[in-house]
Amino acid sequence: MSTTPRHTSEDQEIDLSQISRKINQGFQNLGGFIFNCIHFFIKNAIIIVLLFIIGVALGYYLDKTKKSYDHEIIVIPNFGSADYLYAKINLINSKIKEGDTTFLKNLGLKYPKKISKLEIEPIVDPYNFIRDREENFDLLKLMADDGSIDKVLKDKITSKNYTYHSITFSTKGVATDENTIQPLLNSLNDSEYFKVIQKNVVENVKIKIQYNDQTLNQINDVLNSFAGNVNNTQRSGNLVYYNENTQIDEVLQAKYNLVSEQGNNRVQLVNYQKIIKDISVITNMEKASSSKLILPLFLIFLFICGKLFLGFYKTQSARYKEKAAN
Description:
By secondary structure, this protein is α+β, with helices and mostly antiparallel strands. It folds into 3 domains: 4-63 and 290-318, no CATH class; 66-191 and 276-286, no CATH class; 198-271.
C-alpha cells in the first residue's frame, strides 16, 4: 500500500506549525514595538508635552504676526485682449519668481516681496459664449466631434474666448487698493496698441447710439402719424381696412430690435472704460493657517529623530569599541 497520503498529511502539519510559529513571532515583535513606543513616550512625556506647548505657542504667534490673505479680481478682456492679458500675467509672474523688485515697483506695487504667484483662469460659461455669437455654437460642435464637449470647453484656445476671467493671488499681510490692486490693474491696462483700439471702438459705439436714436425718433414719428390717422378715422365714423402692406408689425419689430441694441451699446460703453475691465474685486480673505498644528508635530518629530539617531550612534559606537577590544 502507498504511503504518499500519510507523508503529505505530515508535511502539511509541519508547514502549518511553522506558519503558526511565524505568526506568533510576528505578533510578539509587533507587541514589543508597541510597548517600546509607549515606553518611549512615557519616559519622555515631560519633554514631549513641553515641545507641544512650545510648538502651539510659536504657531499661534506666527499666525498672528504673519497672516496671509487671498485676493480675487474678475475681469473682462475687451477688444480681443485675452492673449495680451495672459501674456502680461505670465510676465509679472516671471518677475516675481526672479525677485525683480525694481520691475515690480515700477508697476506701482509698493510691497512686491509680499506678493505670491498670480494665477489666471477663465470662468467657464458656455451659455454666454454661445449667446454672444451664434457661430460659436457651430464651432463648439465642430471641435467636439473628435472629443468630449467638457474637454473642449476647458481647452486653452476655447477658454480664452470666455467673457469673464479670474485673477487670484496671495499676499503676506493686508493688501490695499492703493498699494496692490490699482497698480496691478493699471499695469494690465498699460498698452498703447489697445488704447488706440479702445478709442476707436468707443467712438464707433457712440456714433451707433446717436444714429440709432435718430432712427428711433423717425420710427416714433411714423407710429404717431399712424395713430393719429386711426384716431381721426374712428372719430369720423368711417370704417377703414388696413392690409399687410402697412407693414406696421415690421416697424414695431424694428423698434424693439433697436431699443435692445441701444441697451447693449450702453452696457458696452461701461465695459469699454478699460482695456481690462475689473467687474469684481474681492480682497483680504484670510487664509486658514495650520501652523498651530504643524509646528508642535514637527518639533516632536525632530525630537524622536534625534533620539533614534543618538540610540543608533551609541549602539554602533559600542560595537566598534567591542571589536577594537577584541
